[in-house]
Every structure is written in structure tokens, then in C-alpha cells.
Amino acid sequence: xxxxxxxxxxxxxxxxxxxxxxxxxxxxxxxxxxxxxxxxxxxxxxxxxxxxxxxxxxxxxxxxxxxxxxxxxxxxxxx
Length: 79
Fold this sequence. Notes:
Layout: H1 7-35, H2 42-78
Helix pairs in contact: 1-2
């Protein structure tokens, strides 16, 4: 069975992964540059980890929902 690559989805996920990388690099740089490694950086560091996790969970949820929708469309097309 021939697999078709959806370029819109691929671009969507690529852009989101690049956004995660960019805001993590900027965020960790800011934390270590201006807040140091002491207790002052704990709150912002935890927030950055939390937001990254939420972003990744949302991406996975979107991928699962798209997969379910696409499999339903494929199933309807075969019937």
C-alpha cells in the first residue's frame, strides 16, 4: 500500500518542533545568563519545562486525532 506524505501536516509539526527548540534555547539561555543557577531560576525553569510538556502533549493529541480522522476517511473510502 502506497503511503502518501501530507506536506501540510509535515510542515505543521516541523514548525512546532522548531518553536519548541527555539523557545527552550532562548529560555534556558535567559535563565542561566540572568538568573543564575540558584533558587531564583527554579520557578522559570519549572515553567519552561511545564510549557514544553504541554506543547508536546498537544502535538501528540493533534496527531492522534488526525490519525483517527484519517483512518475513518480511509475506511469509508474502501467501503
